[in-house]
Amino acid sequence: MYIIPEIKSFKEGQKREISGCKFVFDEGIDERIVKLCEKLPTGDTEVSFDIGNGEGEGYKILFGDSIKIVAPSAKGAFYGVQTLRQIVKNGYYDVEEIEDAPDFEARGFYYDITRGRVQTLDTLKKLVDDMAYYKLNMLQLYVEHTFPFKEYEGIYQKFDYMTPEETMELDKYCQENFVELVPSLSCFGHLYELLQSEKYKQYCELENYEPQAIYWAERMAHHTIDVSNPQSIEIIKSLIDQYSPLFTSNKFNICCDETFDLGNGKNAGKDKGRLYVDFVKQVIAHVKSKGKIAMMWGDVINQHPELIDEFDDDVIFMSWGYSPNEKPDMVYKFRDAKRTQYVCPGVSNWTSLIEMPHSSVPNITKMTQYGYESGAVGVLNTCWGDYGQISPIQACMYGMIYGAHRSWRATSECPYFDKAIDLLHYGYEGGADIVKRIAKAHRCCYWYSLLVKYSNEKFANDRMKLWHEPSPDEYNEAFAEIEELIPYLMGTTWENESARRALLVVAEGVEIMIAMLMSRTTGEKIGVNLTDAEEWLKKYKELYLEESKMGELKEFIVVFYELAQKYLK
Fold it and tell me: How many CA atoms lie within 13 A of 308 on its CB side?
């Protein structure tokens, strides 16, 4: 049977077909379990429950002519039903008993709704459904200016935003699926929109800063708040006060990562470690006054390990790293300091139309193993939106689901993973392989690569640097691959039609990007013209608006079309 996450242990038994279930519920059973059971087709196989009143997410399933789900808690039983849903999808069971439990207490997905697109509430609910199906239990949405904070008046309207009502409704929906919605808010660095505004630019570390690259690049690198101004902490407190009450979670992610500008402007010459810790401690104290446990990214304090002990014992540090060859240094520092931590790998979708499994799979594998060996309590798998969040959510699901597997089974290779995701998510044999093939072709034409040329010409500098300049042979090989995939995708039928359609639009976009970069690099035109780009932008816009609000779609279309006009005419 193909089950994700891979179950921990089982006893083989007689093979029996199963097409649906007939549930027997005890009085007082948790309504969330009843509601989940309604998602299974009706059939002759009787299913009963033995649920305790304790804690824990483990469960057993006992098989015979009938099935019994045994769990110490409603949450464990909920996950037992999710496994049963996947068994029904397989169409049979050949086991006598399954016993399962997670390796990590917290198993999360982190999605960026700031740097490009703001997903609709319906899309986010569907994401929660998928997360629960694969036994994830935490969702965080990255927010800077995409919420109606009073400080961002006149700013958030320009980018679209998630309303307080939507946030509270999503929180309720998460609770119905045993998912904890944790607020995540920039509280130190990454305050570009706020600190570029006329009203608040006086609180920026960099005085009178003028952009030197395209907007998306500037937003990634700047700005950090001026910690020497006593009003700065009051601004951050206000943001927290407005956001915190919307969530039932007892946690609050204050972020406080990548404070690139700290000590490089108004606080030049001061000890950067001291500046950082003193300000963050004030943020943490305010979060605690709201009855929340502070979470924070570990990259900055990782550079000042001698100061870690100044933070309260209950602070949760998030050790992140996204390389396929990621080292365990940050994880080990927090382990050695005996601090509570989550490990945070990523799906490697940023700057691309699609995730990159060649990078995300080894990254997620290494980070979860480091965390498991070091006693980390959680995994938070990230999906960032650098440079416009141009990848559809259906083009990020391979990494999300692989992260769910490794969050549950940190040391399991799951050799059948691709076959399982084909059955359970894509609904097409070979879906995972298509994702990998599109990603391989896209490696020579990242969206970032086009933006480098665009930005450097606009600003008459070379501030942005290419990661890699592919050879003509690499371009030709990638183009041939994508040219083969597009008609193939057009001619297939998937159970998950939204995934097939999204991947087709992505593949067509990759084809155009390859053509643009080949033209820029070699001057060679390869059968893709400006009309093709115009038609693709219409398809992309339609797909985008099906899952997201307008966000920064217009800005993407303008830049993409300018590049197409230049390289495809």
Answer: 25
